Amino acid sequence: MKTQKLLRWSLPAGFLLAVAALSLAVWSYGYRQALDALAERSAADLALASDRVSSQLQVYQELAVLSSDHPALADLSSAAAQETAAALLRAVADKTAALDVFFAGADGAVLAAAEGVPGASVANEDYFRRAKQGALGTGHGVLQPGGTRVYFYAAPAFAANGKVRGALVVVADVADVEQTWRGSLPAVFFTGASGEVFIANRSELLFWRQGEGSPEVMRREIHGGHEIWTLQGSPYLPQRALHLAVELPVIGLTGEILVDVAPARAIAGLQAAALAAVCLAFGAILFFVMERRRTLAEANAVLESRVAARTEALSAANLQLRREVREREEAEAALKRAQQELVQAGKLSALGQMSAGISHELNQPLMAIQQYAENGSAFLERGKAERTGENLGRIADMAARMARIIKNLRAFARNESEPVGRVDLVKVLEDAVELTEARLRECSVRLDWAPQPRGELFVRGGEVRLTQVFVNLINNAADAMLDQDDRLIRIGIGIGRGARLAVEVRDIGPGLKEPEKVFDPFYSTKAVGSSEGMGLGLSISYGLVQSFGGNIRGANTADGAEFTVELEPWGTAGEREDAA
């Protein structure tokens, strides 16, 4: 009995200890994550403050550099020249808010100043010694009496012989720099080489050196790679703060920032508390479930028997469903094969219609080749090598023409299996025109088609299948005009709906009797039993264009029929999906 009671209470106690340990781990992880985010934002704030201070001091640097070669400062050997230079420097100081502007000679003696006393010497100042070496000198300090914090920029002035004849020094009031951003950010301060705070957006931090005065750094610790300070003695600074620092060699200071970590601790605490609440709720539910487990055991046995029976029924249904899916997939595969065979049959049908013209196109060059060969042989016997070469060149041209015709026929007749890709629309139209040229000539059909430069209009499709579409449209247009004397086909390229490229094939025939049925399979206006087709050409063309993501439509015009093929230009979303 005692063992059961001990076991009963040991499980909840162990669960509570596990929840406490897990909550502590979550708090530690959440605190690290929050510190990472806080450090990232604080680094951006510190960079912003550093850039602001550097930019504001940069104005005085540029003032020193630009004014050092002023003509009024070229010769200060006389009292009048020094007075003129002093007036100029006072005007510069008034207009730029500089605390003082003065010019010191090569020996460091001040020759002219806006506010300072002429005759004073800055020969021992680091910024002047730097300027005397020909470089821009910088420095900072506190003017006495008054304790005014200033920043110095000393720009060298060169004589005609290239030597340094003096330096123009601009004195900037640091208080003016601070007033534009004081209190706008977390505690930001800038320290010199001695570690003393020289610039800050909190007045209590001025002239503070770590370990001296108030505030006092009680403890430094590293948490998750971040330095955390514990501060005491200032109501305007956080008690626990994230400390970041960045070197600013341009102005010779180190930028530092202190950011309160209380929000990060609060976030971590909320995460740990939420997890503990969820775990406790889950534990309570689990305890309740375990108490009711015995009651549910009998009901579960009955349910399992029902589930077994239902599972058997579902297995049989699933087997039947798989059989039906397999049959449907086989039917779809057979349909695709039939569609491919139908497309190939359409090509062969079109080739049959063009066979007489193609035979003439091949026979004519063959006859010409025979004639040119006989002429070349005769000219060769007579010693006329030049005329023989001309006949051989014509034979080569005729052979190239026959090779081009045969190449187009082979490409058109093959069963294309290439995926949809980039197709040159102008080349496809030229191939279709060349394939139907013989038949159009045989049927006395005029063709209005102005070839365009290749390589400028690319569409999404298959080259052979797209050629078949236009061959079908041109042949249908020619068939429609066989019963009339005047026969004309116009082909043009334009912009269709939705920025698609549109190809229009227009004839001057009798038009379409039922435009809404022209793309139906086996629909034809030709006589039953005619050898000119089975009414599948337009249906095949419709399916091919749809497979490219395009559209084809037929309509009547004022003087005949017009078929418009709209295709997706290459580079659209469809092309990117195919490329992927």
Structure report:
The chain contains eleven helices and 18 strands. It is α+β, with helices and mostly antiparallel strands. The chain folds into four domains: 144 residues, Beta-Lactamase; 111 residues, PAS domain (Beta-Lactamase, 2-Layer Sandwich); 115 residues, no CATH class; 165 residues, Heat Shock Protein 90 (2-Layer Sandwich), CATH 3.30.565. Strands 7-6-11-10-9-8 form a six-stranded antiparallel β-sheet. A five-stranded antiparallel β-sheet has the order 2-1-5-4-3, sandwiched between helices. The chain has a five-stranded mixed β-sheet with strand order 13-15-16-18-17. Strand 4 and strand 5 form a beta hairpin. Helix 1 runs antiparallel to helix 5 and helix 8 packs parallel to helix 9. It is flat and about 115 Å long.
* Uncertain parts: 527-532, 573-580
Q: Structural class per helix/strand content?
A: alpha+beta
Q: Beta fraction of the residues? A: 15-25%
Cα-atom radius of gyration: 47 Å
**Tally of DSSP helical segments:** 11
Strand order of the largest sheet: 7-6-11-10-9-8
End-to-end Cα distance, whole Å, is 69 Å
Question: What would you say the CATH architecture of the largest domain is?
Answer: 2-Layer Sandwich
What are the secondary-structure elements, in order, as H or E?
HHEEHEEEHEEEEEEHHHEHEEHEEHEEH
Largest sheet geometry: 6 strands, antiparallel
Morphology call: flat
Averaged pLDDT:
79
Assembly type: single chain
Number of domains: 4
Topology-level CATH name of the largest domain: Heat Shock Protein 90
- The CATH top-level class label of the largest domain: Alpha Beta
> Which bin fits the share of residues in helices?
40-55%
Kindly state the number of beta strands: 18
Quick one: CATH superfamily of the largest domain?
Histidine kinase-like ATPase, C-terminal domain
